[in-house]
Amino acid sequence: MQNNNQENRSGWPLWEIFIRSKQGLDHKHVGSLHAADAAMAIENARDVYTRRMEGISIWVVESKYIHASNPDEAGSFYDPANDKVYRHPTFYDLPDELKHM
Amino acid sequence: MLDQSTIDYTLHLADNALVLGHRNSEWTGHGPILEQDIALSNIALDLIGQARNFYQYAARLVNGRGVGSEPGKRGARVSEGPGEPSEVTEDTLAYLRDSWDFKNCLLVEQVNGDWAKTILRQFFFSAYQFYFYQSLQQSQDRELAAIAEKSYKEVTYHLRWSSEWVIRLGDGTTESHTRIKGALDQLWKFTGELFVPADYERTLAAKGVAVDVTGLRWLWDERVNDVFQQAQLVIPAAGWEQTGGKSGRHTEHLGYLLAEMQFLQRAYPGCEW
Hints:
The structure holds two protein chains of two kinds. By secondary structure, chain A is α+β, with helices and mostly antiparallel strands. Helices cover about 15% and strands about 20% of the residues of chain A. Chain A contains two helices and three strands. Chain A is flat, with a radius of gyration of 19 Å. By secondary structure, chain B is mostly helical. Chain B has helices at about 5-25, 35-60, 90-95, 105-110, 115-135, 140-170, 175-185, 200-205, 215-230, 255-265. Chain B has a single domain (about 5-265), classed as Ferritin, core subunit, four-helix bundle (Ferritin, Up-down Bundle).
C-alpha cells in the first residue's frame, strides 16, 4: 500500500496519534495531524487531543510507516473465522476482578 | 486595609497576562497551520486564565475584602462613570481602565508582526514568567503564591514550546533565521524592563510579597543564552532599554489593543453573552 501524497502545503508530514487515557489502558488511535518532526508531533498532539484531560501518554507514528490491510481482501481475510466458535475462550470462568478483558 | 502597592502589583501581573493573552488570541484563525493555531490559542487561554485570577484578587482588594481583612468592610470604590459608584469586578478592571492605568511591561503589548516575532516575544516572556512564578510561590501573600503555583505548570509548557520554535527558526532556513533575527532586533530593547522594578515592586519585595525581579536577570540570561546557542543566535550587546510600561507609560500599540479589546463593554456597558 502506497500513500504518495501525505504532505500538506506546508510540507509537513502527517502523523498518527495514539493516546492512553489512563494507566493500565491501551494507547488508542485518536486521529492524525501535521508536524515537522516527532517532537513537534507530540506537542501538537498534546495541544490538539489532550486539551480536555483525555490523556496521560502520547504515541506518535509518521503515517507513512503505517501499513494497512487491503479492504478488497476482507472476505478471504476475515470471513473464514466466522464459524470457528471453538477459538473463543468462552469456556473459561473469569474472576470478577478482571477488567478490560 | 487598602494596600495600594499590593493592588498595583496584582494589576501589573494581571495586565501582563491579559495583554499577551489578547495578542496571542489575535492569531486565532490565522495561525500558519491548524495545529499551531490551536497551540497558540491554548497559550492565549492559559494567560487569560492567569489574568482572571489576578484581576479577581485585585477586585477583592479594591473592594476592601483582601485576604485577612474583615468581611464586609469596604475600601475605596471606583466609579464606573455616570451614576452610582459600584463594586469593582474582574471585568471592570480589564475593560474599563485606560492605557495609562495599565501596568503591563512593554514587551507584551508589542504587535504580533510575523510568526517569528510572536514566537520570540512569547519565549522572552515565558522564560521570565518561568522564574518569576517559581519565586512568587514563596510570596508572603498566600493568594499570589497560590496563583503562581497554579500558573507555573502552564508556563513551563509555554517555555518549552516557544524555546523549540526559537531553535527551529534560528537554526532553520536562511529565511527563518533572517526573520527571527529581525524579531530580535525589534524586541530586545523591551526585555530589560522585566528586571527593573517599579516602586510598588520595590516596596513589596522588601516585605517578601513581591518577587525581587533584579535577582531573576541572571537566570533569564542563562536560559536565553542556552536556547540562543542552539538557535545560532547571539544576545545583542547592551544598549538602550525602553521602560515605563509598569508605571503606565506605554508604547503607541497598547491604545489600539485596548480599543479593540474594550470596544464592546465601552459601547454597550454591562453587555453579556
